[in-house]
Amino acid sequence: MSSKDLTLIDRIKSGDAAAVARVISKVEDCAPDSADLMKNVYQLSRDGLVIGITGAPGAGKSSLVDKLALFYRERGDRVGIVAVDPSSPFSGGAILGDRIRMQTLGLDQGVFIRSMATRGNLGGLARATVDAVAILDAAGYARIIVETVGVGQDEVEIVKAADVSVVVLVPGMGDDIQAIKAGIMEIGDIFVINKADRDGVYATEKELESLLSLASRGDGWDPPIVKTVAIESRGIEDLAAAIDRFAEAQRGSTLSGTRRRAIARWRIVELLRERLLANAVGSPESSATLDRLADEVATRRRDPYSAVDEIIQGLGQ
Amino acid sequence: MSSKDLTLIDRIKSGDAAAVARVISKVEDCAPDSADLMKNVYQLSRDGLVIGITGAPGAGKSSLVDKLALFYRERGDRVGIVAVDPSSPFSGGAILGDRIRMQTLGLDQGVFIRSMATRGNLGGLARATVDAVAILDAAGYARIIVETVGVGQDEVEIVKAADVSVVVLVPGMGDDIQAIKAGIMEIGDIFVINKADRDGVYATEKELESLLSLASRGDGWDPPIVKTVAIESRGIEDLAAAIDRFAEAQRGSTLSGTRRRAIARWRIVELLRERLLANAVGSPESSATLDRLADEVATRRRDPYSAVDEIIQGLGQ
């Protein structure tokens, strides 16, 4: 480890936002020194509370996250926000989101905002996101909010890796069986019905209650439903109180240990997956082999299974 | 390859739905003979048109897919439907969806419906989905519709792997910057505004047009916007015509070759990722190591990076 890296780690320890941004970029880019940096970051683990917030597009997650962050700031907590945006590599959607947010929160030194987007097709978004959370925790952010766009598998895992998972719904989503998926239900420790000044709140709440009554969590926690109108800052205090209540209930419970082990297992697997793939196709030579095989598969001269056999045989040599 | 496998492959070649279902289950479960079966399936590639359909939850994708399938059936085509449902492992949401669908389509011998859900945390959903598509193609289904719930990264890739990608929106989604993501825009070859009898169709159409005018595809195709009311079967014929037009435009174009190579590369990488991970932690012994390391990471006696170092060092021995 170089003295430059030690300096970066010292700066993170002291809560330096520029150093936090720099190290997050390094883990996103898989910089050569990122693994060593992260080993040091994990030594600095503090007890920041990680809050995962998910829900369908259009549910108003960003507004809710911004208002919750403002609430925590007023209470004196430093707040980190990590917005996961898997679709942005195509066009920089994350950047647009950031710029709009910067107008309300960005000038506050006690708030750190970062959007995470996919880089290339080798994956690693989920791993980079949990690393970014660990970096913010090491830098002393007391509340770290992870916001995910969409309801894909990666995003579900990212939200499950939080200490508290919040699922955001809006009135009227119950129109469609797909809208309120039992799967999404089961990851929520707390449910928010946002835009609760709209028609259909009562129906959505009843539907949600009946879905929740079917699910069994096994930890004795009965997920509360909080109604908010984020753009008018209504219900934010109730949400913060529900989050604190859940965090308190989890502290020291046996199930919380089980949950932490499942999260740790997932994190190791994600990182392992990425490292193995980088070993297999990360070099210029192996990347050329991959291009040739892709060409053969595209023109149907070969099937994907035989192509993978060839790559794996090459690794053994 | 055993004679039993040969029989299965022969049955697929003859279009036997039970054999199709059996082989899809094998590739989902990574059965020992699944790689050999798939190598044979790829030999049977025909020219089924693969149509990917995505959009936010609640957009009415299932109804749209069902109506499009009925339309193709009336034209005499056999239709395969693969519904990707990443959230269902938690609770079987996919099965619920299937049962509802079976009431309308399931009694028709010319329609094959299958939901694909995640199995465990070792991934492989995207790979299993494209394999299922290849199996349906080998069995002579002329139209294969892949429907994805949600807008996560895996789902985007699955839809991009189709011959034609359809993005489904509903009026009023433009409320939120997150709702219409430029990233989702760029994967669409065709856009559908479903529930087009609702208020706000004109505004959504204008917003969509202006977003599309910013995107540059480079292949000269101008993605059409088709308005539908799926539950009343309105606009389905227009959608089918747009799909045929795009498929025709792509035939033999150079960009279509580039697209096929990118898809092939992604498929190889997905399969490789899964195989490497199975090699690393698929045995009972390595799974026990993973459990121990997860426990150490959960209790902060170790960081995930050092845990992965230990697993990778173990592989070298």
What characteristics describe this protein?
homodimer; 317 residues; alpha/beta; Rossmann fold; 2 domains; seven-stranded parallel β-sheet; 13 helices; 53% helix
Task: Give the second-level CATH assignment, the architecture of the largest domain in chain A.
Answer: 3-Layer(aba) Sandwich
By DSSP, the count of extended strands of chain A is 7
Element string of chain A (H = helix, E = strand): HHHEHEHEHEHEHEHEHHHH
Distance between the termini of chain A: 31 Å
Largest sheet of chain A: 7 strands, parallel
User: What's the helix count of chain A?
Assistant: 13
Note poorly predicted spans of chain A.
Answer: 88-96, 175-179
Average residue pLDDT of chain A = 83
Q: What is the assigned CATH homologous superfamily of the largest domain in chain A?
A: P-loop containing nucleotide triphosphate hydrolases
* Oligomer classification: homodimer
Shape of chain A: globular
Most extensive protein-chain contact, per-chain counts: A-B, 90 and 90 residues
β-strand percent of chain A reads 5-15%
Name of the CATH class of the largest domain in chain A: Alpha Beta
